[in-house]
Amino acid sequence: MKYYVSKKEVERNNNTVGHTVFPLLNEEHGCVAGCCTGISLYKLDEFPPPGLHDFQEGFIVMEGTGWAKVGDEEFRLEPDVSFIVPKGTEHTIKKDPSVKHVKLFWFHASVKD
Description:
The protein is mostly beta strands. It is built from no helices and 8 strands. Strand 4 and strand 5 form a beta hairpin. The N and C termini lie far apart (about 30 Å).
C-alpha cells in the first residue's frame, strides 16, 4: 500500500460550484472510516450555496484571504487559520476580490453517533 500521494499525481475535480478540488489521501492510502484529505481552491467573491455533510470537516488556510461561514458564524480567513465544521452544519467559503483564490487543505473524519 502506498501511504502518500503528491498533488501532481491526482486529477482535479471541477464538478463543484466555485472551487476546484484536488482529492489526496483516501482508502487507497490506508484511510479508514470515511477519512480523506485534499486541497481546494476557492475562486468566487461571493458565497456559493453551502455544503452539508454527515461527517466533520476540518480546514487549514494555505494561501489567500477571504471569509468562511459555518452555521451562523462568519469569520476571516488568512494563511494558517484552521477551523472545523461539525457534522450536519452548513458551511461555505469565498475569497477576497483582491486575491486569485483561497487555497485550503481539508480533511474529512467520521463521527461516532
